[in-house]
Amino acid sequence: MALEMTVHFVRPDGDLSEENAAALAWLDAQSWSDVRPVALSDLAGPLHGKRTTVWLHGTQPELDEETRLALDAHVRAGGGLLATLAASMVPFQLGWEESAPDEVTSGDWSDDAGDELAQGFSEVHRIRGLQSFRGHPLFDGLGSGAYTWTPQPNEPFERYAYSGSTWPASGRVVAVEKSYISMNPGRRLAWEHVIGDGWALCIGGYVHFAAQDQRFRPQLERLMRNALQRVAPNGSRARLLGGAWRPTTRGASADDAVALPPEFDADGAFETGGDISLERDATDAEYTLAGSRALLAGRERTGHEEAWFHPLRAVSRWSCCAAESVTGAGDGVGSSEPAAHFRIEPGVVTRRLELGGRAVDERTTVAPDEAAVLVELTPVAGPARLVWELESDLRLTWPYPAGTAGRLSYRCEGGALGIEAETGEWLGVRIDPAPAALKVSDASDGERSRIRIRAELELAGPTQILLLGATADEDPPARADPSDWAAKRLARRRIQREEQYRLEADDPELAEAVEWAKWRLSSYRVNVPGLGASLVAGYGRSGPGEFGDGRPGYAWFFGRDACWTALACVAVGQHDAAREVVEFLGSHQDITGKILHECTTSGVVNYDAADSTPLYLLLAARYLAATGDRETLEREWPRIEKAYRFCLGTDSDGDGLIENTGVGHGWVEFGRLGEHHVSLYLAGVWTAALVELEVAARSLGRDELANELAFQAAAARASLELSFFDPLERRYAHGRRADGSLNISESAMTAVPLLLGAVLPERCEAWLDRVATEEFTTGWGVRLVPRSDPEYQPDGYHSGSVWPLFTGWVALAEAHAGRHGDARRHSELSLRAMTAGSLGAWPEVLHGEEPRSIGVTADQAWSAALALLSARFCLFQSE
Questions:
Q1: Of 311-315, 317-321, 588-592, 693-697, which gets the smallest average pLDDT?
Q2: Phi and psi angles of residue 644, each rounded to the nearest 5 degrees, phi first
Q3: How confident is the model at residue 837, as a pLDDT?
Q4: Closest to 519 (Cα-Cα) out of 378, 393, 635, 346
Q5: Which residues contact 515 (CB under 8 A, 6 or more apart)?
Q6: Helix, strand, coil in percent for the chain, rounding step 5
Q7: What is the arrangement of strands in the sheet containing 294-299, beginning at the earlier edge strand?
């Protein structure tokens, strides 16, 4: 509940503008505020001796001397001041700031505005808001930022911001511009001041109460309630400061205060038990190793490229070369000499390097639950000399910009090195035995700070390199014990081997694929300090360019991905992972009840999907049914019911089906297959969620809600059948448009409502016949659309490529319809995708005409999950 307060809402001396009137009407309706409108010319009088809050909104006031002195004295004596939109010029007018906001925009919004941040990504969403630096009390209940405005063409708006090299001299910048999946630190929109005993806050843009589109009204109201509470007189109570944006500084320098990593014992750290392994002559394929805090990505032939200790990138470049092949200091990290052989086991990668005619074995592992990576270099026959190099920028994951870490400091002693970012992140490197030489240099450029490390290693026996990390919320570790890592890996593998499933037929390749899928499924559990634990969507290296930098595959939290992956976890007994997903998604729920689409490991959340919320409901119900964990569901139930109520609120036409329009995409995010008011996929997930949530509600003794859910489920099922089944085509439509017409395009998506039991199998016979043919099915999986589709493109993301996800969905749908032979065939194809790219991992997307990976990641969570889930029900039977 907001703090009760008295607010003097300052109105202009003339008529109220539409924006002023809308803001005043909102404030007047709040039970926690005693609103006292006051004309600007009369403001000085009511402030004398009053510890209240003054809110100036929407109009730049012309302050006479009496009013200026009264406002200044009011704040210095402990009063509060909130200045929004044009009124954010007030601190400059009062003399608190040396310079005014330098970017002033007042006019009508245009879709052709040159400040669009997200053009070219799927679809440009015209949404705007404010983003803090890793959290601030202004965003209480809103995560680290919020969208607050959906601009419409020709809609009046105004924006006051500090930009470029102009910053408030005495104020702290607490928020910058937030755009669709982007942020713009170059446009600083909110800043706060401590003046005497009082507090002042300015918000220069995107707080429009009279907006034409009110989609983000709940977020706007919460933001403004927080803002008023932030500045309200509070006696001597301290205010939490929260993060602040500040000018970016670049460079690197030595600092004896930086912590060094501890010594370590790595005896036995690489033991795996040897029950499964894959190896081959090294190729250009990618590989990944992951624990709950660490991710390592590289290529078989050329080796490690990036290391991440969520949410920071510890290593951005990496190389290992024979000493005689390195000449001079060089301007950058050199290229690694190619490996001849590659082997991967659960948690360990081994590469055979040929360095200057000498063989060296490189073994690498990541800590199961720590921010740590361990590399061991061992000469095979006789001593070897090599040069090991890396670069570190301590970059936060997207959408924070590359230079957010600020200036880097370092300390180097013997074989130990510590690096610390200006924002508090830390990397430690220790080499044992100490290298012949360890050099550190500043490799910063105009974009970011970088430190380059070069170690000259004399290998007479094993040399071990340990990397440790810590976030700004942690102290650097005081001890390191990699010798414990193997025991944790072996315990996890023992549990996975004990799962009671067996193949109907003896096939060692499929049996091994199942074990790899179990391992991979457990490797997607990530725990970020201060954010929480859940399943990420996949692993890879950062992509090229500004957009790809800082995006390690899909190594952050997605709502739909986590739910589909967790459904597999439920089915195969990895219940703790499924519980974490339910808890994480609930804890980061939007204030409307909506479940997130994605949450980066740096804590930036977007809610632009329509299917995440019903999938969350479905997962919660199945988790309870599988585990009987009433305690967790009772604790999470308020969030579950809030999510259910949100879904009901998206049914604008009252047909019992939740909608994509105005809510977000379903599985297909763009293109012809994304053009619908309601998709069959979304309608199927919603119907199934209602059916299964009714059972959960009844088992928890919530009979009244269970009865309501039963009614809603019946209505949704009837509406789905009535509005989606085309009797002439004898199949369900892919989607329904806003005008009621059907998008009758054929797609693999019919599998989802069928496998969930939301549609009638007998009405899917034609689709089942068709999806089993070569029109859809290749030798490596199922295409989204058939070859005969007029827009078929085998390399198109949503227009002809093969996804192991689809293949698993189709297998489960066929099993539900009693087509066990086809189900088995597709399940086997899904499992065999394990060798389509990275060994022991399942790719995101494959080409529609060739069995090669074309997606963002070669290690995708829901691909492995659906391979395992389909195998569970199509290839295995309980003993």
A1: 317-321
A2: -60, -45
A3: 86
A4: 346
A5: 275, 276, 496, 497
A6: 30, 30, 40
A7: 286-290, 294-299, 303-309, 312-315, 395-396
Residue 48: Cβ-neighbour burial (10 angstroms; 0-12, 13-18, 19+): exposed
Radius of gyration (C-alpha) of the chain in whole angstroms: 29
Return the closest-CA partner of residue 388 out of 339, 328, 316, 438: 438
CA–CA distance from 370 to each of 293, 373, 468, 476 (Å)?
5, 9, 8, 12
24-30: which pairs have CB atoms within 8 A and are 24 or more residues apart? 25/209, 26/209, 26/221, 26/224, 27/55, 30/2, 30/225
Q: Please, is 510 exposed, middle or buried when counting C-beta atoms within 10 Å of its C-beta (0-12, 13-18, 19+)?
A: middle
> Which three-class secondary structure state does DSSP give residue 438?
strand
Residues 6+ apart with CB under 8 A from 530: 471, 473, 603
Residue 345 burial (10 A CB sphere; 0-12, 13-18, 19+): buried
Specify the length of the chain in residues. 879
The partner residues of 342 in beta bridges, in order of sequence, read 280, 351
Sign of CA dihedral 222, 228, 230, 235: negative
Q: Which of 287, 293, 398 is nearest to 349 (CA)?
A: 287
Detail the DSSP E strand segments found in 85-215. 103-108, 128-131, 145-149, 156-163, 172-179, 182-195, 198-203
3-state secondary structure of 493: helix
Instruction: Tell me how far CA of residue 548 lies from CA of 314, 428, 541, 856, in angstroms.
Output: 17, 26, 9, 10
Q: Which residues contact 224 (CB under 8 A, 6 or more apart)?
A: 26, 84, 207
Strands 80-84 and 53-57, how do they pair?
parallel
Alpha helices, DSSP H only, in 680-764?
A: 680-699, 703-724, 751-755
Report pLDDT digits (tens) over 60-77: 788 889 999 999 999 999
Amino acid symbol at 699: S
Q: What is the largest CA-CA distance in the chain?
A: 90
Which tokens in the block code for residue 554?
A: 């899909």
Give residue 876's pLDDT band: very low, low, confident or very high (50, 70, 90): confident
Paired tokens of 430: 């220790």
* 274: region left, alpha or beta (phi > 0 left; psi from -120 to 50 alpha): left
Backbone φ, ψ for residue 690 (5° rounding) = -60, -45
Q: Band of the pLDDT at 120, cuts 50, 70, 90?
A: very low
Q: What is the DSSP string of 513-579?
A: HHHHHHHHHHHTEEEETTTEEEEEEEE----SHHHHTT--EEEEEEHHHHHHHHHHHHHHT-HHHHH
Mean pLDDT, rounded, for 436-445: 94
For residues 121 and 180, what is the distance between their CA atoms, to the nearest angstrom?
Answer: 9
Between 3-7, 156-160, 361-365, the lowest mean confidence (pLDDT) is in: 3-7
The pair of structure tokens assigned to 370 is 């720590």
pTM of the predicted model, to two decimals?
Answer: 0.95
In tens, the pLDDT along 808-852 reads: 999 999 999 999 999 999 999 999 999 888 999 999 999 999 999
Confidence band (pLDDT; 50, 70, 90) for 56? very high
Query: What does the block give as tokens for 400?
Result: 């924070």
- Residue 586 sits at the vertex; the CA angle it makes with 582 and 588, to the nearest 5 degrees, is 125
Backbone angles phi, psi at 620, to 5 degrees: -60, -45
| Distance (Å, whole) CA 870 – CA 138 | 46
Residues with Cβ within 8 Å of residue 513, at least 6 apart in sequence: 831, 832, 834, 867, 871
Check whether 331 has a pLDDT greater than 60: no
Inter-residue contact 685 to 614 (CB < 8 Å): yes
Main-chain dihedrals φ then ψ at residue 598, nearest 5 degrees: -150, 145
- What percentage of the chain exceeds 70 in pLDDT? 95
The pLDDT of residue 637 is 98
> Which helix (H) or strand (E) segment is 632 a member of?
helix 630-649
